[in-house]
Amino acid sequence: MRTGVAIVGAAESDLGVTNRSVLGLQAQAIGRALADAGLTLRDVDGLATTGVSRFSATQLADHFGLQPRWTDSTYAGGSAFEMFVARATQAIQAGQAETVVISFASNQRSARSRSLGGVVEDHTPEAQFETPYGPLFPLSYYAMAARRYLHMCGGTREQLAEVAVAAREWALLNPAAFRHGTRSLTAEEVVGSTMISSPLTALDCCLVTDGGGAIVLTSSERARDLRRKPVEVLGYGERTTNTSMTAVADLTVTGAVGSGADAFARAGVTPADIDVAQVYDSFTITVALTLEALGFCGRGEALDWIADGRIRPGGDFPLNTSGGGLSYCHPGQFGVMLLIEAVAQLRGEAGDRQVPGARLALAHGTGGILSTHATVVLGVDT
């Protein structure tokens, strides 16, 4: 099935420790993505971004001297960029914009700060019922989900560690990855690393890096005349479930159940049809919960399902082929990087980590404390 909209450009900014400003990294990513598409700033009439400020799209437009016909600055954490794909697709279909850039960047490692959001106000449920206990945000919330999940499914910490072990194997194939020049991990090393919030250790947690990226979307008709192989937007879906963990009835069931079902239905495909998947890996538990919610395996089955190298290079389910947020990069919000890697795989441009014959890809973002969920299905012609 087709939406009539395609991704025609994709690029990452410099990554790691850059000592660049946020706007400098944004400009770098956008310039590279437009060059990848064979377009220029003069072609851009739609802009979607978040994380620069409360007026992210306004500030970015001003920085570039643009007056876009359409903008979006939805702040939904790591899933915002998959949400932007849906909104940009709808805007292009409706004639509100012809060429939309989606971008993000952060310099949190250089700035030595992970602050990407506002202060929790005193009257909110989380301020009243959660903050007094001193949870690490968002880590302790994911740790509670992990503790509950392991209790429910009878899994072990070593089984959960496979998510990090597999991510490192992919990163060793990606020259841009922060952990590219290191070595393979073992489950024992993951479990034995510094405990941060039980049961999650340091190696269960995503990196803290600078970086960002951008993608360019336009109509499929126009895409045929551009430089790169168009990657079609086939389906999308989203759910917003909670701000406070106090409101969650079951920590092991996420909104990805609904976002994934909608995306697959719009695309006219099933989980079994996906050739390569990019799933937000803020923590190892995020991946386990998301794989089940999207329908790749049954409830409580994820840790058995990913065993025996299934999600490693050469396995039958290529997952987070860039190395993910655990070993590639994580500039605070990782959703745009999922899309960039999906595009690279579908174009056949992923080098040593290329998945042979990839024609359908999934990118799924998660934001907040399992709060927001957005799924995108992409494809290319055979």
Automatic annotation (TrEMBL):
Which residue intervals define the domain Thiolase C-terminal in the entry?
A: 237-379
- Which InterPro entries did the record assign? Thiolase, Thiolase-like, Thiolase_C_2
One Pfam family recorded for the sequence: Thiolase_C_1
Q: Which PANTHER family match?
A: ACETYL-COA C-ACETYLTRANSFERASE (PTHR42870), NON-SPECIFIC LIPID-TRANSFER PROTEIN-LIKE 2 (PTHR42870:SF1)
Q: What is this protein called?
A: Acetyl-CoA acetyltransferase
Per the UniProt entry, what species is this protein from, by scientific name? Streptosporangium amethystogenes subsp. fukuiense
